Amino acid sequence: MRKVLGAVTALVFALGVATFIGLPGATAQGGGGTIEADVKYNGAPQVEKLKVNKDTEKCGTEAVIEKVVVGGNKGLANAVVSVPGAKGVGKATKATIDQHGCKFVPHVVAMNPGDLELKNSDDILHNIHTYSTANPSINKAQPKFKKVMTEKLEKPEYVKLTCDVHSWMLGWVAVTPGPAAVTDANGVAKIENVPPGKQTVEVWHETLGKQTKDVEVKAGQTTKVSFEMKK
Ligand SMILES: [Cu+2]
Q: Are residue 197 and residue 171 in the same domain, yes or no?
């Protein structure tokens, strides 16, 4: 018993040292705070199913279009959480979307103005067609031999992504001026290294629209904020 206690004490001590060592490094990364957003939706999930009769060997025979994905505890997935006022602290100026199984994977990505990399791992013809107002619209075939295509999205905007070959294919690219993250299956998104002070947090969802909330970010701390999206 004493041996076990000793081992536990040593472990706790080691962990304590690790945390202590970890702290100065975390603070040195700009002295920012973390925003943890919890996005909920009190409604039913919205999933459309469609019979597919084209390229079935790659696409399957049924397309599932998940417009509103609600997970455990009413958490809303695929929502984009961003801090538009914290310009210049975002890290991803490049995002990647794969066309796989005649679906855009992931369904939603967030990036700062920069490059969107489009992969085609299906070995069939796809056609990228974007709908946007601030950025020029992209409408380009991506034949099966073209495995990667890179396009510029230089203005902040929520860009809709479709494919003219497969009408059901739908994706979204959130081009945000500040740092951003997409909510997971539980409706949670975390943004790190946000400058301390008052910040506005924006949440956007493809069918449920937009909401904002003001928060106070403190250096080295996590600020929690919750949203409830309405129909
Ligand atoms: Cu396609």
A: yes
pTM: 0.84
Q: Which domain holds residue 155?
A: 31-229
Mind listing the pLDDT tens digit for each residue in 108-136? 999 999 999 999 999 999 999 999 999 99
Give alpha helix (H) positions in the chain.
2-28, 56-59
CATH of the domain at 188: 2.60.40.420
Q: What angle do CA 65, 70, 72 make, to 5 degrees?
A: 140
Ligand 1 center from residue 138 Cα (angstroms): 14
Q: Are residues 8 and 119 in the same domain?
A: no
Taking the centre of ligand 1 as the mean of its atom positions, its distance from the CA of residue 129, in whole angstroms, is 10
Tens-digit pLDDT profile for residues 143-169: 999 999 999 999 999 999 999 999 999
Picking from 207, 180, 203, 184, the residue whose alpha carbon sits closest to that of residue 65 is 207
Distance from Cα 123 to the centre of ligand 1, integer Å: 11
d(CA 127, ligand 1 centre) in Å: 6
For residue 200, the CA-to-ligand 1 centroid distance in Å is 37
